[in-house]
Design a protein that fits this description.
The chain is mainly α and 215 residues long. Helix content is 62%, strand content 0%.
């Protein structure tokens, strides 16, 4: 069996090399150098863009302060930090799935890229509201953290977000509307949020800020 597997691997490796040779033969030496330089520029600019967005702080850690890399999130950070959840729960405790690592980081990546697109294009709402996919994750986490409360003490049972959408129950926030962010929040509705939120310093180097300031 191992001999057969090795032969298959050698066959696929050989075929892959043939395909690679055919593709590379399509370009001249100068074209190959040009494509390599263009790929390097694209990768470098992409890496710089992700660095300026502080994507590493969002994907790797659980620090809620990473959410205020985008200033539009300051009302939500400020209201969370002054709520009861601010003592015991981070943003990721509520806003990403916890079934397994693949679901957690896959959702973080997808949701983070979506938010980045909204904020860069200035297409976010004045008062941000959770979309269905996010709302389902949030309600699952409400139930995950408060299982004893909602299944033993008050015996509401397991009602998920999609059941609430179908009218088979109510979502947690239909009753607990002010948890943990208070009422409807926006930069306009919470004008002092930025003064109580640890906004990160600009990632743009001082020398570049100086050049931009002169212009």
């Amino acid at each position: 069996m191992s001999i057969f597997a090795n032969k298959c691997n050698l066959f696929y490796y050989g075929e892959s090399m043939k395909l690679f040779d055919k593709i590379t033969d399509m370009f001249t030496y100068r074209e190959k150098v040009g494509l390599l330089l263009a790929a390097g520029v694209i990768v470098g600019l992409g890496g710089l863009f992700m660095y300026l967005l502080r994507a590493h702080t969002y994907f790797i850690g659980d620090d809620p302060a990473a959410c205020v890399n985008c200033h539009i999130m300051t009302p939500y950070y400020a209201t969370w930090s002054h709520s009861s959840h601010g003592r015991d729960a981070t943003c990721n405790d509520c806003h990403v799935p916890h079934q397994n690592l693949a679901m957690k980081y896959g959702f973080k990546a997808m949701d983070g890229l979506k938010h980045t697109a909204y904020f860069v294009a200035h297409s976010e709402r004045q008062a941000i509201m959770a979309e269905d996919m996010s709302a389902e994750v949030i309600m699952d986490n409400c139930i995950r953290c408060h299982t004893q409360l909602n299944q033993e003490f008050v015996k509401t049972g397991r009602i998920d977000y999609m059941m609430a959408k179908r009218g088979e129950g109510v979502a947690c926030w239909d009753c607990h509307r002010n948890v943990p962010h208070g009422g409807m929040n926006s930069l306009m509705a919470t004008p002092n949020a930025e003064s109580v939120t640890p906004l990160p310093p600009s990632p743009v180097p001082q020398w570049l800020q100086g050049l931009l300031g002169k212009k």
